[in-house]
Amino acid sequence: MSPPISPTEQPTAPPIPVPTQENMQGTSILTGIFGDNPYFQAGFGLMGVGVGLTALRQGLALGSTAIRRRMLVSLEMNNKDHAYEWFLVWMAHNASTSSQKRAAHTWLRSHQLSVETAFEQRSNGSSSALFRFVAGPGTHWFKYHGAWIQMNRERETRSMQLMSGTPWETVTLTTLSRDRHLFPQLLTEARDLALKGQEGKLVIRTAWGIEWKQFGQPRRKRPLHSVVLDTGVNERVERDVRAFLARRQWYADRGIPYRRGYLLHGPPGSGKTSFIQALAGSLSYDICLLNLSERGLADDKLIHLLSNAPERSFILIEDVDAAFNKRVRMSDDGYQSSITFSGFLNALDGVASGEERIIFMTTNHLEKLDPALIRPGRVDLNVLVDDASPTQAKTLFIRFYGESDEISKEDIDRMGQQLEELTAMEMRQGRRISMAALQGLFIRNTVQEAVAGFRELFVDRRT
Ligand SMILES: Nc1ncnc2c1ncn2[C@@H]1O[C@H](COP(=O)(O)OP(=O)(O)O)[C@@H](O)[C@H]1O
Ligand SMILES: [Mg+2]
């Protein structure tokens, strides 16, 4: 680029540095041109402006790349990482608090929201949905401790994550380099927020492709003593699990895989599921719920899931008999479950890549289970969780009505005693009552009604 005219030739040129080949660029030439030179008007002047602007624009473009490189820092998180989930929760939390005009340090401007629904379908048919608005794909800005941070959420639509079938997503945070120290702080805050939501709660995960994903919101823990099992059963299982957890080194020294399997069998509504959940809660363990009849689950995925369960979790396989009832199992939609029994045994025996593995299985039909499954190493403790025993009936009754103000403690005890005897009497005639049925009776009725309607609920369990 050569200047339209050499400024040195102008007698009235302002006292500016004499442009040489080296510095004849950018601002110096502009000032040179716009010195009050009478020749520079109209055409020449405009031409000069054009040249100057081009130079300026090039300079700016170069400059912004340099600024971006030198002065901005970016942090990328993808949805394979915990931080990704934590950040979105944090973002949603802050967006909702700032919209309540309580904006602390965070201010969020988003026109693009996406909704994440935690949907939960319970076995009794009820369901709940919780909507959480999070920043959708696109670019958003927010201010954090005085620093502006740009957030860019992108969804990769073309490729899916192998096996799990969820699209790749990334969130990129960009801020000025001098504020880079805010990233760890922000992530710590996000993590603490996410973990606080789970504190004292039971987290349940389900298999999603080959990954374990949180299912619904964390639930309130159920106190272990609220599940009333027959005398000693509760303690026996709890003691076994605790002993196992304390013997990690013992297993390691002997080269034995550090894992243990439990089978709880018995009629429906006896508290198998409730007990396992309460036990997990009392040990601060999570539950990984595995449904063997789930469509799309194949032997190789099963092996992967069993050996890659998150730390501190029980793997819970409910109704373990159901998956292998028939040789080829067809579900309602004619879909063929592709788990084989031998594949399942392999997965149970397989080397866990995780440190420890605790599997709980439940069944209503012990007799339907292949003896190969109940072998030690696969099932180490096999426990019967039965219909209400006389003691269980009394204990549950006192649990429900013992706090009542209207009736004295002595009367409650006496009635409990009465129910205990009634239960023993019914049992001698082969009639039983499930704990779930008892719970239902006690929830719906007053003490007197419960005692009066008690015997009606027994059913013949002789086959
Ligand atoms: N032993 C028990 N103690 C207290 N509640 C029980 C017991 N057994 C069943 N229930 C109640 O009955 C319902 C069904 O129990 P659940 O644990 O699902 O039984 P299971 O898994 O054996 O079929 C739950 O609401 C639970 O609170
Ligand atoms: Mg159950």
From TrEMBL:
<dbReference type="InterPro" id="IPR050747">
    <property type="entry name" value="Mitochondrial_chaperone_BCS1"/>
</dbReference>
<dbReference type="Pfam" id="PF00004">
    <property type="entry name" value="AAA"/>
</dbReference>
<keyword id="KW-0812">Transmembrane</keyword>
<keyword id="KW-0496">Mitochondrion</keyword>
<dbReference type="GO" id="GO:0005743">
    <property type="term" value="C:mitochondrial inner membrane"/>
</dbReference>
<feature type="compositionally biased region" description="Pro residues">
    <location>
        <begin position="1"/>
        <end position="18"/>
    </location>
</feature>
<keyword id="KW-0999">Mitochondrion inner membrane</keyword>
<feature type="domain" description="AAA+ ATPase">
    <location>
        <begin position="258"/>
        <end position="389"/>
    </location>
</feature>
<dbReference type="GO" id="GO:0005524">
    <property type="term" value="F:ATP binding"/>
</dbReference>
<comment type="similarity">
    <text>Belongs to the AAA ATPase family. BCS1 subfamily.</text>
</comment>
<dbReference type="InterPro" id="IPR027417">
    <property type="entry name" value="P-loop_NTPase"/>
</dbReference>
<keyword id="KW-0472">Membrane</keyword>
<dbReference type="InterPro" id="IPR003959">
    <property type="entry name" value="ATPase_AAA_core"/>
</dbReference>
<feature type="domain" description="BCS1 N-terminal">
    <location>
        <begin position="47"/>
        <end position="227"/>
    </location>
</feature>
<keyword id="KW-0067">ATP-binding</keyword>
<keyword id="KW-1133">Transmembrane helix</keyword>
<protein>
    <submittedName>
        <fullName>BCS1 N terminal-domain-containing protein</fullName>
    </submittedName>
</protein>
<dbReference type="InterPro" id="IPR014851">
    <property type="entry name" value="BCS1_N"/>
</dbReference>
<dbReference type="InterPro" id="IPR057495">
    <property type="entry name" value="AAA_lid_BCS1"/>
</dbReference>
<dbReference type="InterPro" id="IPR003960">
    <property type="entry name" value="ATPase_AAA_CS"/>
</dbReference>
<keyword id="KW-0547">Nucleotide-binding</keyword>
<keyword id="KW-0378">Hydrolase</keyword>
<feature type="region of interest" description="Disordered">
    <location>
        <begin position="1"/>
        <end position="22"/>
    </location>
</feature>
<dbReference type="Pfam" id="PF25426">
    <property type="entry name" value="AAA_lid_BCS1"/>
</dbReference>
<dbReference type="InterPro" id="IPR003593">
    <property type="entry name" value="AAA+_ATPase"/>
</dbReference>
<dbReference type="Pfam" id="PF08740">
    <property type="entry name" value="BCS1_N"/>
</dbReference>
<dbReference type="GO" id="GO:0016887">
    <property type="term" value="F:ATP hydrolysis activity"/>
</dbReference>
<dbReference type="GO" id="GO:0034551">
    <property type="term" value="P:mitochondrial respiratory chain complex III assembly"/>
</dbReference>
